[in-house]
């Protein structure tokens, strides 16, 4: 029996033995902030690694939102006990598919937008991810290294390797994109126009107006979706200043989502600049044990296929189990 099946059995037993429901009760004072990225119509779902990492099918998202609505009041009020907040990062037109689902439940959500993606796209990281996912199979020399892109696993490994290369080499992603464009321009990749319009094109100003009119919140998510911890101090400050200047303009709330949002990506300096810039709250992209108003935890449940695993996460049982296992190590 593999590890994943073992844990699914634990969640199943915890669900039917009442342990999950006990954890819901014990954690009833908590608020759950959920993070999703791109909600894609079912007929456009393929086996690409980029979809595996950041996309959820519309039907799967509907199943998750149905569970969330049965367990909690869905709200946009930060800090409300025993409620759930639904959030989306990056500001692509896949947000419109998400809105269509949320409308059926009367839910409002947060959509966090990088400034450069409004009427734009794709963002630098998605351009690299999309290129590696959809370029024709073959051998490619990227940053002086040969990559054999002949399977989704080899493509995912190459993407992760290239992002680590960018992190370790002066954070110069522009040179990588230039290399990729010389090999095959992004617009020539085998990506259908329908999928490209949903997944790789940013929301338009008109889209954003409509989303706000429906009661959704639009928040900050940097200028270019940079890894903030790698920016020089003056660039970091400039990034937050440019974003906070859009509060009560492009943004109709003072909430911010850190790009990437993991501890390695969000330094103490990032948190300080965020608070100083005028944002009233900010969310990470992981569980934060000692969270503050500007380092709020988020749960990533978009790829859970088992309702028992979803309930284990939402109830707090799964995090409790992680903590126990970490303590035993």
Number of helices: 14
CATH topology call of the largest domain: TIM Barrel
Using the coordinates above, name the CATH class of the largest domain.
Alpha Beta
Proportion of helical residues: 40-55%
Structural class: alpha/beta
CA gyration radius, whole angstroms? 20 Å
**What is the total number of structural domains?**
2
Architecture overview:
It contains 14 helices and 11 strands. It is an alpha/beta fold. The longest helix has 17 residues. The two termini are 22 Å apart.
Topology at a glance:
Blueprint: H1 3-17, H2 19-26, E1 31-36, E2 38-40, H3 49-54, E3 55-57, H4 58-71, E4 73-74, E5 83-89, H5 95-105, E6 110-113, H6 124-134, E7 138-142, E8 145-149, H7 152-168, H8 173-183, H9 193-199, H10 205-213, E9 217-220, H11 233-244, E10 255-257, H12 268-277, E11 281-283, H13 307-315, H14 317-328
Parallel strand pairs: 1-5, 2-3, 4-5, 5-6, 6-9, 10-11
Antiparallel strand pairs: 7-8
Helix pairs in contact: 1-13, 2-13, 4-5, 6-7, 6-8, 11-12
């Amino acid at each position: 029996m593999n590890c994943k099946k073992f844990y699914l059995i634990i969640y199943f037993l915890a669900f039917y033995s009442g342990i999950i429901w006990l954890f819901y009760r014990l954690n009833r004072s908590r608020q759950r902030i959920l993070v999703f990225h791109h909600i894609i119509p079912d007929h456009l779902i393929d086996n690409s690694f980029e979809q595996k990492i950041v996309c959820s099918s519309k039907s799967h998202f509907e199943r998750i939102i149905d569970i969330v609505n049965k367990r909690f009041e869905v709200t946009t009020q930060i800090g409300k006990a025993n409620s759930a907040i639904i959030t989306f990062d990056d500001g692509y037109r896949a947000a419109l598919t998400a809105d269509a689902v949320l409308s059926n439940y009367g839910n409002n959500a947060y959509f966090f937008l990088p400034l450069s993606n409004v009427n734009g796209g794709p963002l630098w990281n998605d351009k690299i991810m999309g290129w590696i996912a959809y370029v024709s199979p073959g051998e490619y020399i990227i940053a002086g290294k040969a990559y054999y892109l002949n399977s989704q696993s080899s493509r995912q490994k190459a993407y992760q390797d290239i992002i680590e290369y960018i992190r370790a080499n002066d954070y110069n992603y522009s040179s990588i994109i230039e290399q990729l464009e010389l090999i095959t321009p992004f617009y020539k990749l085998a990506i259908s126009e329908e999928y490209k319009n949903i997944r790789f094109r940013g929301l338009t100003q008109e889209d954003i107006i409509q989303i706000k009119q429906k009661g959704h919140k639009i928040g900050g998510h940097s200028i270019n979706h940079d890894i903030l911890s790698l920016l020089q101090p003056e660039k970091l400050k400039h990034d937050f200043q440019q974003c906070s200047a859009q509060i009560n303009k492009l943004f109709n709330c003072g909430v911010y989502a850190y790009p990437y949002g993991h501890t390695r990506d969000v330094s103490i300096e990032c948190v300080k600049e965020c608070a100083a810039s005028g944002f009233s709250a900010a969310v990470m992209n992981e569980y934060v044990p000692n969270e503050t108003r500007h380092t709020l935890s988020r749960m990533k449940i978009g790829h859970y296929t088992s309702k028992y695993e979803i309930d284990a996460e939402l109830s707090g049982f799964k995090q409790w189990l992680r903590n126990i296992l970490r303590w035993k190590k």
